[in-house]
Amino acid sequence: MFILPFVDAMLGAVYVLAIVGLMFVRAMLGAVDVARGLLRYRRSARVDWAARLTDLERAMDGRPSLAHPRGGFRAADHAALVAQVSADPRSIMRPSTLLHAVVVAAYNEPYPVIADTIRTLLHTSTKPEQLLVFFAHEERGGPAMAETARRLEAEYGHRFGAFVLVEHPAGLPDEIAGKGANITFAGHRLAEWVRDQAIDPRRVIVTSLDCDNIPHESYFDCVAYEYAIAPDRERLSFQPISLYITNIWDVPAPSRVVASANCFWNLTTTVRRLALRNFASHAQPLTALVEMGFWSKRTIVEDGHQYWRSWFHFDGDYRVVPIHVPIFQDAVQAGTFKATMVAQFKQLSRWSYGASDVPYVGVRVFAPTARSPFWPGVLRFFSLLEGHVSLASISIIIAIGGWIPFVVATQTGQATSLVERMPMTVGIIQQIGMIGLIVSIVVFNSLLPPRPIHVPRERRLTMWLQWLLYPLTLLVFNSSTALYSQWCLLTGRYRERFDVTEKMAGGRSN
């Protein structure tokens, strides 16, 4: 954008128009897909997944299904599956034998934040006896965190199939202090516990949660359904929709805008199978995790990196299954507006540091000894590369790209009618592209939880006015954090620390 206009102003203008046009098409497709993602979420959330699991159980035993509503999300597929299981009961795994190990990662978060998550686990449609909670807390959290862990065990531990406290020691060799190392330590403890209890590890599905995550009531039953029916279940992971709306009414407008963009992306990827990756909280079979050594202990972006570790470990025979119900999470919120903005920048910088996966993937896809399929690997590599390049540059190109060829051409005497109209042309495309934003606004407002009683009614107005900040917020946070992370990689200032996002409960610091 900055070099081509000095070579040829027309060439620079064509380049900018091509990028802006491509982004316009993507915006329109994104608006369609975010609406599709919302529709699948709504339909899936209305399904009684526990009843569908019962249908499978009864079909395995040669008994008819119980009476319950037969319509809804993928009802025809379910009916065909029940018929298949009736004919061949061994074609699926018996759902009632499955256990869900829930690894809850914590550092120094306040008790009310963590307790909300633990209480929520008790009130899903899955029996608490089928949940094995492994509370992975950091020794670095100090005595207060240790006391919180003991309090949680005393109050809630007896209500689950198991409740195990796992304190991750500080300063272990070959680790970056962070979530990946913490949950991997807990994962090894889980594997030992399963072995000691003589439980078949193929019956155990592991979900990793941050301590402020709130799973949808049918999340575990959805995962169990998909796991039980899949013939290649041990080479799958299960990705729910991450929705950052738990505290959305309490956070400042820029944080709401960033949270909304994250919600849109997560809704969109659930309907794009090739784009779906592990992100934030997800589930994977214990057998696969044991075989892989659980998660990476040397990266601060363990969730997205887990996709690539799994892809290469299984030689490309690996896929992510969308779970069309959410795990609710908090938007970034600290004590003050300034502190919240700093925390938001740190969170997005940590996420954008996933650009470190580009060389990890590249050297494995193009290695002479690569065992994964070449062309699917190449496609994924360039998709990963393009995603990080776009994250860093597209907002800047759209914001000022129309002016660069115009200014250069007027100063060098290369002005043509196309170049002179560049700022107006790009502006018109941006205005038409607002159709996509309008769709996203409607989707976001349909996701909003009820307004808490402590939030003034006037906040509803700011919930609409916040969208005026959308272009600027994405420019400031998305592009700047991506450029910052990529600059750190370029200059060898590698991240050796996991910056924990501050957690708050009920809109108040604890």
From TrEMBL:
Keyword annotations of the record: Membrane, Transmembrane, Transmembrane helix
Segments traversing the membrane: 12-35, 389-408, 428-448, 468-487
Domain of life: Bacteria
Keyword Transmembrane helix: yes
Official protein name in the record: Glycosyltransferase, catalytic subunit of cellulose synthase and poly-beta-1,6-N-acetylglucosamine synthase
